[in-house]
Amino acid sequence: MNDSSNQDPIVVGLVQMAMTSDMGENLNIALCGIKQAAATGANLICLPELFRSPYFCIEEKCEANYLEVLPGDLEPALSKISKELKITLVAGSVYQKLSNGNFNSSLVFDSTGKKIGEYHKTHIPHDPAFFEQNYFTASNEGYKIFETVINNKSVKIGILICYDQWFPEAARSLALLGADIIFYPTAIGTVSSVEEEEGSWQEAWKTVMRGHAVANATVIAAVNRVGREHDSIFWGGSFVCNAFGKVVAEGTNKEEIITAQVDFSHNERVKEGWRFFKERRPDTYSLLTDKIK
Q1: What DSSP designation does 127 have?
Q2: Each residue of 113-169: pLDDT tens digit?
Q3: Catalytically annotated residue among 49, 68, 118, 132
Q4: Checking CA distances to 263, which of 43, 78, 213, 249 falls within 20 to 30 Å?
């Protein structure tokens, strides 16, 4: 994945952070993390899911109000730092109020500070300590590619948010749209009151995304939060893997910056060599869009 001959590399930076109950403080933590990532050479940086707040979906009803109307104070701050540092920023996600619902939204800014779009979470979980359907409207907008230029190279960015990562159809959709890299901002961990009877949740989380990388010949970057919030322990473990599932950078369970140089030409070599797209049989896949009875 690393290409020593590349004089102007694309370097992914993941800001693995813990959040407080203060939205302003969380924004400052995120901005400091972005600066740290850029200082290490990262020019394509991603924040975690719901980086402005604690993971309030632990509760069936949260008394605190983390819902925000954009642009507010958020977009100007993210635009400014993207422009100042000349980085492309995938701003994790925030709890956004829109006229048609309240969404879990990821914002993307280019190196000029321009917001080039936003993605709204499609798949919304509803389990003990992950009561997201009480808060978020499921998006019906479909999947999107955000195209920008980094070091004179065109880069096509796909974004899926946390629970989206369990659905291979979502990753395949972005790959078919031409994604060079798929970011997964997440807020996931273990819950002390819920047994991991199926096996390790973290191992499954990591394995399924590595599978998406291989099946779609696409770089995957997942960025998680850390710390204990009520009964939930967020495990961090943010990582970048190449288009054949090799993990090239990985975090611990502490606050830190994870960086990795990426080589998108490797995507094409995997795609051509294994012919996963050329040998597709869409005529046999109609079952995938049928509703389960």
Answers
A1: B
A2: 999 999 999 999 999 999 999 999 999 999 999 999 999 999 999 999 999 999 999
A3: 49
A4: 78
Residue 49 tokens, joined: 């899911």
Residue 99 lies inside a defined structural domain of this protein: yes
pLDDT at residue 153 in the model: 94
The total domain count for the chain is: 1
C-alpha to C-alpha distance for 288 and 293, rounded to whole angstroms = 13
Query: How many residues in total does the chain contain?
Result: 293
Q: For residue 3, name the pLDDT band (cuts at 50, 70, 90).
A: very low
Please indicate, yes or no, if residue 286 is contained in any of the structural domains.
Answer: no
- Please count the other Cβ atoms lying within 10 Å of the Cβ belonging to residue 186: 26
Rounded CA-CA distance 264/183 in Å is 14
132 catalytically annotated: no
Which of the residues 46, 62, 162, 241 is marked catalytic? 162
What are the distances in angstroms from CA 98 to CA 53, 68, 123, 164?
18, 9, 18, 21
- Is residue 279 flagged as an active site residue? no
For residue 140, the domain's CATH number is 3.60.110.10
Q: With b meaning 16 or more CB within 10 Å and e meaning fewer, what string describes 20-41?
A: eeebeebbebbbebbbbbbeee
In a domain, 287, yes or no: no
Q: With respect to residue 2, please indicate whether it lies within any of the assigned structural domains.
A: no
Parent domain of 71:
10-279
Please pick, among 57, 68, 118, 121, the residue that the annotation labels catalytic.
121
